[in-house]
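User: I'm writing a short report section on ligand binding and want a predicted complex to refer to. Could you take this sequence and (2S,3S)-3-hydroxy-2-methylbutanoyl-COA and write out the structure as tokens? A short remark afterwards would be nice.
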Amino acid sequence: MALYTRVSGSVGVITLQNPPVNALSAAVRQGIVDMMDRALSEPEVKSVVICGQNGKFCGGADIKEFGTNMSGPALIPLIDRIESAAKPVVAAIEGIALGGGLELALGCHYRIAHSKAKLGLPEVSLGLLPGAGGTQRLPRLISIPAALELITTGRHVTAAEALQLGIVDKVTDRNTLDEAVKFALSVAGKSLDLHRISTNPCPHPPDVDAVFETAMQRVRQRARGALAPVACVQAVRAAATLPYAHGMERERELFKGLFTSGQARALQYYFFAQRAVGRWSTPGGARWDTSKPRPVRRAAVIGLGTMGRGITVALAQAGLSVVAVETNEKQLTEAKQGVSDMLERGARRRGVPPALDKVIYSHKIQAVADVDLVIEAVFEDMELKKAIFQQLSALCKPGTFLCTNTSGLDIDELAAQTQNPELVVGMHFFAPAHVMKLLEVVYGQKSSPQAVATAMQIGSKIGKVSVAVGNCRGFVGNRILKPYLEQAFFLLEEGATPELVDKVLEEFGFAMGVFRMSDLSGLDVGWRVRKAIGLVAPEALTGPYARVREGHRYSPLGDLLCEQVRFGQKTGRGWYQYDKPGGRVAKPDPWLHRFLEEYRAQHGLVARRIDHQEVLDRCLYALINEGFRILEDGIAAGPEDIDVIYVLGYGWPQHRGGPMFYAGMVGLNKVLERLEHYHQVHPDVPNLQPCSLLRKLVASGSPPINKWREVIKKPHSQL
Ligand SMILES: C[C@H](O)[C@H](C)C(=O)SCCNC(=O)CCNC(=O)[C@H](O)C(C)(C)COP(=O)([O-])OP(=O)([O-])OC[C@H]1O[C@@H](n2cnc3c(N)ncnc32)[C@H](O)[C@@H]1OP(=O)([O-])[O-]
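Assistant: Sure. The structure tokens for the complex follow:
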């Protein structure tokens, strides 16, 4: 919808109306066409202003329409009509001008932006490219290199940067519409020739070919198989080499190719999945819209190791006062320096003063007595954590929320150490805690809806995407990681190498293959957990039962490497070798290849050639199968929760949507058939036995992913 008013006698104002972001739905597009006709036909009207309702100009095309038969006027001719208008059209940009919203503004003759506005062409993050002239007009307006950078990254720029780049003509702190109307009055009747961007030549940097080659190399390196960034470079290249009309044909062709691609569907699914996880619910009936969080002004962090320091920085940067406690004096001194350095670096990057005064340090746990929320981040040892929860429960003021950063220990067992288990939830951060966007908020059996709501709110306050999950070993992320890692180990036993497995997974799009990731996070992390649950008794590492645990196949490969202090990057040796401890560049290690050969010989295993498809199928389908078990157990409310966790926390490629979305894309019947096949070959690996929820979904005709929750809800299978 669009509203039309006339102000100051001669200015026609068109207001886009489609809350919450005035997306260019069919109705809005029709409204713009009708109102433009009106403004251009009214003789009293000498100039036009386009603005958006509710302090937002426009969030672009309506993404919700993408999956439907799109109706209404097309956007390209609509924008061309504005640009070719005989009367000046001014865009009054408040809040946001993104995607098709900025393209609409680029069709106007002038752009006035409020100082707080954000502008950009983020289509690439939806697996698309600016498909309404953005790839042809923006380079003509701000130069090819600047346009290439904005379009291939999709980043939002501030109004100040937009002015400096030449995207907008003026920035104001005042009422943007008033300023735009004043401006429109001032340009009425003036020539618009220079302000019809598409008619202007596209300025060529002297080394234009080199600019495009460099850009293409950069996006290919970063893209890891994503199609859209590459197509963005190709489209802007058309602006440099073709007249506008032909450039637009090229843009349309490239856009069409992306629009129908699986990657675009995956990225659009992921866009809405990130928003869906905010609408959390628990099997106990607690929900995002009925559970009121309690305000948290002062927080505390117990234990200032790597994670504790990152969490302290994240809280302080978000404006919370933090009491940071470390009982070990030496560690406390180092932590003070570490936290200050991180706060200063972060402040420099964001151009704000460092929040050093937000943190007070103490070596006494009593210092947290009057905070509103405590996050325990000590060593991953249950007995140590239990003792701390007993202390906290005794000394904190009534109502203080007690949270733990454990990456997989039992929340209920910790809650049982306190007088108020309803105040206990898990807040599982990912390293580095002040950088990684993901937060798993883990509710226990007794966690109150208010405790969950408060932890979720803290998560979004500190800029995290928080996902509410149930309590089980490893929660969602690490629980799913186990069968994925297990298959990778088994593939090594059967003849693969870490290089082969990692190559396949990185070609699929993972930022890092499973073995390089294991070396980065440290093999000893998982080893300590396996030791704690009795899987790694020294006598169990050799002999006839070395590869069996609780009657199932087990691979002690990781344990054997840890016995040799091959913890990965931190010791300079792991699945790969590194120049030195802490080295980052992984190189194949002949020692490890010899070790694998000896290991196979020792256990009577014969190496065989393993093809890429088998690596992919076994690693990914085992992971996905565990995802279905998690949905069946109600540990995650929906597939979106698992997908967001895996993309943000475990490097699953965003352009593949997430493991559960990928399963839907591949076809649930195919996933089921492959799991049945591999379980037949490996009957001693229960993680390959297809989950009954997967069978149920296939039996119900493999419904689309947005229908899975309905099937999950039906407790008793018809099968
Ligand atoms: C031809 C043309 O070239 C092409 C093809 C295109 O133009 S493609 C489209 C290009 N545009 C974009 O990529 C911008 C996408 N949006 C955003 O980046 C953000 O939304 C935001 C604008 C910066 C606001 O962030 P927010 O944090 O304040 O709120 P929110 O929770 O995110 O959003 C609030 C609510 O608005 C919904 N929403 C936001 N943008 C939308 C859009 N473009 N279409 C439909 N719904 C949208 C969102 O799902 C949520 O709904 P619900 O969950 O409440 O039901």
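A remark for your report: The first strand starts at residue 2 and ends at 7. The chain has three domains: 2-259, 288-476, 496-602.
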